[in-house]
């Protein structure tokens, strides 16, 4: 294959110019989930705002990352928890991830924590829904669409109440409520369940466990969103469930693609926008540029545990310092915890670091990360092999996907040692296969007909233009579980079959008996 | 919603410019299916050629529509049938569609015809495969990809033999071999089967029939592609089936979208390019422009029965002439058959008509069509209500989809009368709901982030750049039918359950007997 002149490359792209319908400026109500979830949704909100749409973001009075901005307007609503409550909650989650092995008891504790969190959020949602003046003013604004993260149910309930189409923006819902609500098939025979640790190629025992997990998921979903079901039925004054409401969503903007996720069935209203957060690299500050350039041929390593975790217990931190002391690379670490006296000189600690800009630098050699979906997409996008230390949520699954592709090593943070870290770091830096496979993955990820942000913008605007996306709604929504799987049809066919067999056998026996009696009579005669 | 200034609309589209990877010129081997199938594939072949790729089209010596062209090179291969054989075959199909009602015997006859056709094609394919000099020269050209219509198996077999990735271009394979090979779920509870006449909303009896049809499909597929299975195993010298080979295809370019088809699950390597044939309208010739403009406020009707049928038996034709005489619209009819003496003056007969240019004319009121997938997409694209006269193949299903959307009326051609035609024509022209619904459908169809042709080009080039699309291949390919549906897991779980119940019952009975004996002994004592 020979390279075409550059103008020819633009030809196809220029055709795009004519493919967008006349764009209209609309009003979008945005109800995000706080924390890292907001970081990528914000990119879409700001882009829609740049394109002339009026974006109104609902912000809880006590928020972590959702802030006011000149790019969108905000409406604040009171919540029943304080910043201290939030910090306490975060610390608990962090500690349980850092200190303990994921034993069965911990899973129960984690689930209880999640339930508590969701029940608390449900109360917050109730406060918002019954905030009559706010809701009245919002209703009167006449929004064209609701943009929401369906991990929490409030946006979906408001969309139903306002009779406006909902656009969902998410990575996933842990109990797979998203796929169930979208009527998306997800056979347990090759789609590993949340936190199972399996890949898409499973042995019989793994498939057995995966099938059982599928059953458990159903119960989990019911418990997790029980309060949401009750709130929705009460507020909307109709017998409904959160899953049913979710199923009316117009479009699902999903923060993954098949460079990262295992290939799986999709529904027509599912749109993949994985890598939406991987923007173009900006130049580093002079200080940072000097530091990373000073690393010489060995290059440097980027280390963060995400937006929520910037500290480590002293003993744990020591293991990291010790490992970093023994590598020739320089290390940039987002860390605000206590620093030992003899901290190695090749490590630079920062309160915050420009992660994507660093990962895009030609001298970067590895990315040590907790495996949040934003970070890993920045890693994939820039082609950087990773050492992963999953903490909670989908991070374990994310790590496992990249490990199965041979582009990362994964360690458990509760028992990490400097030796283990060193082995993993040396592997991903010195074994060239990690970098090669990562470059291939990166090339596949970046080779797409349209950028994820443009796609997200297009579909949000599509929903506004056509007041939903009814033509993408499968008729499966009208079927119950038995009908969907044709169990009633199969039952009916079995019944016919059994009846035919029964009648045939009976007839045969009847004939046989008749003949037998006759021959006996004859004999007697 | 207010309209944005036009420059803002271009912003998003211009971003497309940067989304295409550096394009390389490659070599693509093309093995089309002759007839109307070729018409849209040709568009992609020409576009790829325009972009600098070397396109080599394999053309049977006796071909209907595949011709030499300056835009691509051709290699001709001998076949065992003549133009007369083809004409005879066509006439038979045409007659059976025009003259007889689709009774059960006809279905058997049609299936026998199809089998004969496929067996004949399989022989043609064998001739091509064992044409050593041609195959050797092709192999030596070092193609990057194979573009083929998988309705016939030859392209897929050659792709496997040459070890090059295959890109499929199709509307569907009648027995749903395409979905089976792509591992795409298609629940019979809401996905109507080929020629069933059902929509995606079925009653219990309809679902029952649809389920039975699903079983029949399996047998049909096996019969239809039995000769292909044998040929593939023999030529590739390995035990294989056509379905298995098909499953290794890189990308499926599917000529439908959800403005037309019922929403359904999709696999990651399925790309929708419905409407790829609906190019921009060119101006009409002076003569045609005068004729259609002379129709005044009433406008005109376009009537064709596709590229393969330009004649009708005299009695049948008379019904059409009589119906057209009674409408105020002018009619443009692609017809080369006998003309009655008193043919109405509002009808203009033509050997060939510029269908898309006419359908894009503002004065067009209705489109009378056989319901081929090319014609209906030109109808949808231009927003023209239709009267449909399905003849064979997928045309019945196509008609039924548009009727269910309220944008068309469907008639059976074997018993069509001027009265029935008149009623249908008046309905779609005078009842405004047809036009309104069609305009909505058209708006949805045309509102897409990227044009179908660009998408087809992108994915063909993607496959060339990355030597396939392995990351889109689901792990389901490694499972057999029992494993895919987890029947082994369910069986194992049932076995455990039954064992537990059995042991429990036995233990209880044992205890009960022990206790009972004791109490009896006591009584006796």
Automatic annotation (TrEMBL), chains A, B:
Record's keyword annotation contains Glycosyltransferase: yes
Enzyme class: transferase
GO molecular function, one term: glucuronosyltransferase activity
UniProt keyword terms in alphabetical order: Endoplasmic reticulum, Glycoprotein, Glycosyltransferase, Membrane, Signal, Transferase, Transmembrane, Transmembrane helix
Membrane-spanning segments: 489-512
Secretion signal span: 1-25
Pfam families the UniProt entry points to: UDPGT (PF00201)
GO cellular component, as recorded: endoplasmic reticulum membrane
EC annotation from Swiss-Prot or TrEMBL: 2.4.1.17
Compartments (UniProt record): Endoplasmic reticulum membrane; Membrane
PANTHER family from the UniProt entry: EG:EG0003.4 PROTEIN-RELATED, UDP GLUCURONOSYLTRANSFERASE FAMILY 1 MEMBER A1
UniProt protein name: UDP-glucuronosyltransferase
Gene source species: Danio rerio (Zebrafish)
């Amino acid at each position: 294959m020979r390279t075409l002149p550059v103008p020819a490359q633009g030809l196809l792209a220029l055709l795009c110019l004519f493919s967008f319908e006349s764009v209209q400026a609309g009003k979008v109500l945005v109800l995000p989930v706080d924390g890292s979830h907001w970081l990528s949704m914000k990119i879409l909100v700001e882009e829609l705002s740049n394109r002339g749409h009026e974006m109104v973001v609902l912000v809880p009075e006590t928020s972590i990352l959702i802030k006011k901005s000149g790019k969108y307007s905000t409406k604040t609503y009171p919540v029943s928890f304080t910043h201290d409550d939030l910090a306490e909650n975060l610390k608990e989650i962090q500690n349980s991830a850092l200190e303990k092995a994921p034993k069965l008891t911990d899973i129960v504790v984690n689930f209880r924590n999640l339930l508590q969190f969701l029940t608390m959020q449900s109360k917050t949602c109730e406060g918002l829904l019954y905030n009559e003046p706010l809701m009245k003013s919002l209703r009167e604004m006449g929004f064209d669409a609701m943009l929401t993260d369906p991990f929490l149910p409030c946006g979906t309930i408001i969309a139903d109440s306002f009779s406006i189409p909902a656009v969902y923006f998410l990575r996933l819902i842990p109990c797979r409520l998203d796929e169930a609500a979208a009527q998306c098939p997800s056979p347990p025979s090759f789609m590993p369940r949340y936190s199972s640790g399996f890949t898409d190629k499973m042995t019989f025992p793994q498939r057995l466990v995966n099938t059982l997990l599928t059953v458990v998921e159903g119960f989990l979903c019911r418990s997790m969103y029980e309060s949401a079901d009750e709130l929705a039925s009460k507020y909307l004054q109709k017998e409904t469930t959160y899953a049913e409401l979710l199923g009316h969503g117009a479009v699902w903007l999903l923060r993954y693609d098949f460079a990262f996720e295992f290939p799986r069935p999709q529904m027509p209203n599912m749109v993949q926008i994985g890598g939406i957060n991987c923007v173009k690299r900006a130049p580093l500050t002079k200080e940072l540029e000097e530091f990373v350039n000073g690393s010489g041929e060995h290059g440097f390593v980027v280390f963060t545990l995400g937006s929520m975790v910037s500290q480590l217990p002293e003993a744990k931190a020591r293991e990291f310092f010790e490992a970093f002391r023994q590598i020739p690379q320089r290390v940039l670490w987002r860390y605000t915890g206590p620093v030992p006296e003899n901290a190695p000189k090749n490590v630079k600690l920062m309160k915050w670091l420009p992660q994507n800009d660093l990962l895009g630098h030609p001298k970067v050699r590895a990315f040590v990360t907790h495996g949040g979906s934003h970070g890993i997409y920045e890693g994939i996008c820039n082609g950087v092999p990773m050492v992963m230390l999953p903490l909670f949520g989908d991070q374990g699954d994310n790590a496992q996907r990249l490990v199965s592709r041979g582009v990362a090593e994964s360690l458990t943070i509760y028992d990490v040692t400097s030796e283990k870290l060193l082995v993993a770091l040396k592997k991903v830096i010195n074994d060239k296969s990690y970098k090669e496979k990562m470059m291939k993955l990166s090339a596949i990820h970046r080779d797409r007909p349209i950028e994820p942000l443009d796609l997200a913008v297009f579909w949000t605007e599509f929903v506004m233009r056509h007041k939903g996306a009814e033509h993408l709604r499968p008729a499966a929504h009208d079927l119950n579980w038995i009908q969907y799987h044709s169990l009633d049809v199969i039952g009916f066919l079995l019944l016919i079959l059994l009846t035919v067999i029964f009648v045939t056998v009976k007839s045969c026996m009847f004939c046989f008996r008749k003949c037998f009696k006759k021959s006996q009579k004859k004999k007697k005669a």
